[in-house]
Specification:
The chain contains 13 helices and 27 strands. The strands form 7 sheets. Strands 7, 8, 9, 10, 11, 12, 13, 16 and 21 form a 9-stranded antiparallel beta sheet that branches. A 5-stranded mixed beta sheet has the order 23-24-25-27-26, sandwiched between helices. Bound molecules: flavin mononucleotide.
Length: 492
């Protein structure tokens, strides 16, 4: 059954016993975040939470419940994306990208539907009034302060929308982008848009500024879970996130026209904020914000959004997340991306066997890669290829190991890599763009990155000493010990 809306997803989570309904009134100022933090830090990521009585600043209880940590476990991210294993989506992509010319006419014909698989479920625009427009606020009715937006850390600049789909359009190509960027509340009718300079929303804004035109923007909260996830996925510009969500769901995403601007919105969104950014206006201060690095991101200047309408369902649910010291819910969204994008990475860097971004590395700080090394210096070829791909270009530390190392086991990777390196010889520093959130780089968004070649060194790489063998117990001894194990009185 495809999950078409946030309530569908919440009901499915409840059916598998991973939802806790919190009936106690809990404040949107820090309290929900503190509870969510304790839950997200529990083994496996803890349950999803539905706060039924969120208390707003001023003490009023909102009628809009707050859902948090919906994607925050291995089981729930799979549930949201409609799979048993995240690799299933990657497998479908690998199948599509396997363009070996088949033998025989029938096999060739059978290949055609495979090629069109990605575009099989394009978003559809529905006519009539969509669910997300059952209630419409315009003009003086608009009051974002009535929504249960959270303040998540004590020194944050204010209240934030943390799990949105920000929809914009490239003015030149007309291509839509959906991005998950936090948004700060600046008052009843204004927000600050934190799209970082490397992201598509920011690129659209720069283009609109060059044209001197106002930029329509819509912010959708809630919707089908695959669309929400797709907003966080680093798709190449020009690939529509709703098309990608359709591919994941094997079902069209339903859209509808916004009521006050020329963009489409997910028909099943819970709440939609419509508005525009005027690039001619001065930027506003955004932040500080307790970020997914575990540190406060400094306040900086970002564009202001003027809200022209707010639409919602009759009884909407507000979806939020909390970021902070890992592990948090966002680990699971990033982990889905890691698995789904592996075959695409292999398309251009075929020697990659597997890769992993451990939670403590918060995605851009640390990437482990295993490769099928076939020639000297190949680890460096892989590092540079990865630094040349989309947001992977921001990876601060890349550790390359041989194919027999399990990159999902951080202890194993460090054990092998640290044994295999001569630091002066095997560590390479390069310069380039770094993540906006990197607070240590020499300059804002420009600094250095480090590649560690943790592979076995070859004579052709100048290593002429003998390379030692990894110790493994012989099978015969293992069998004898297995046979006596139960008699030894050792509990394990
Ligand atoms: C919970 C969460 C919050 C995020 N917040 C931001 C943000 O505030 N600004 C930003 O530029 N990217 C943020 N990201 C990362 C983007 O969603 C991600 O880079 C995405 O690929 C951007 O899409 P785009 O390439 O279409 O711009 C966040 C991701 C998650 C999972």
């Amino acid at each position: 059954m495809s999950l078409d809306s946030l309530p569908d997803f919440i009901a499915a989570i409840e059916r598998i016993g991973e939802l806790v309904r919190v009936r106690e009134p809990v404040h949107t100022h820090l309290e929900i975040a503190e509870i969510a933090d304790r839950v997200m830090k529990s083994p496996g990521g803890g349950p999803a939470l539905l706060f039924e009585k969120p208390v707003l600043p001023g003490g009023v209880t909102s009628e809009i419940p707050v859902a948090i940590n919906l994607f925050g476990s291995g089981r729930r991210i799979c549930l949201g994306l409609g799979v048993e294993r995240l690799d299933e989506i990657g497998d479908r992509i690998a199948e599509m990208t396997n363009l070996k010319v088949p033998e025989g006419l029938l096999a060739k014909l059978a290949m055609l539907p495979r090629l069109t698989e990605l575009a099989k479920f394009p978003p559809r625009t529905r006519s009539g009034r969509p669910a997300c427009q059952e209630v419409i606020w315009r003009g003086d009715d608009i009051d974002l302060e009535r929504l249960p937006l959270l303040q998540t850390w004590p020194k944050d600049g204010g209240r934030y929308i943390t799990l949105p789909m920000v929809i914009t359009r490239d003015p030149a190509s007309g291509a839509r982008n959906v991005g998950m960027y936090r948004i700060q509340l600046l008052g009843k009718r204004h927000l600050a848009m934190h799209w970082q300079r490397h992201k598509s929303g920011a690129a659209h804004w720069r283009e609109m500024a060059e044209r001197g035109e106002k930029m329509p923007v819509v912010i959708a909260i809630g919707g089908d879970p695959a669309s929400i996830y797709a907003g966080s996925a680093p798709l190449p510009p020009g690939i529509d996130e709703f098309l990608f969500a359709g591919f994941i769901r094997r079902e069209h995403v339903e859209l509808a026209r916004a009521v006050s601007c020329d963009l489409d919105v997910p028909a099943e969104a819970e709440i939609v904020i419509e508005g525009y950014v005027d690039p001619a206006e001065p930027l506003v201060m955004e932040g500080p914000f307790g970020d997914h690095t575990g540190f406060y991101s400094l306040a900086d200047r970002y564009p202001r959004l003027h809200v022209t309408a707010v639409t919602m369902k009759q009884r909407p649910v507000y979806a939020a997340t909390l970021v902070g010291r890992p592990p948090m819910e966002d680990y699971w969204l990033g982990h889905a991306t890691e698995r789904i994008f592996l075959p695409l990475l292999k398309l251009t860097v075929p020697e990659i066997v597997d890769y992993h971004m451990p939670a403590a590395g918060i995605f851009h700080n640390l990437v482990f890669v295993s490769i099928d090394k076939q020639y000297p210096g190949q680890a460096y070829k892989v590092m540079h290829a990865m630094w040349g791909q989309g947001l992977m270009s921001l990876a601060k530390v890349l550790v390359v190991v041989d194919k027999d190392v399990n990159v999902h086991d951080a202890d194993e990777v460090w054990w092998i890599a640290l044994n295999h390196i001569d630091p002066r010889r095997d560590v390479e520093f390069v310069r380039g763009p770094v993540d906006v959130l990197d607070h240590a780089s020499q300059h804002f968004t420009f600094g250095s990155k480090m590649g560690i070649d943790g592979t076995r060194k070859w004579p052709e790489e100048g290593f002429t000493r003998e390379w030692p063998e990894k110790m493994v117990m012989d099978e015969e001894t293992r069998r004898r010990v297995d046979a006596m194990w139960s008699r030894l009185g050792i509990k394990s």
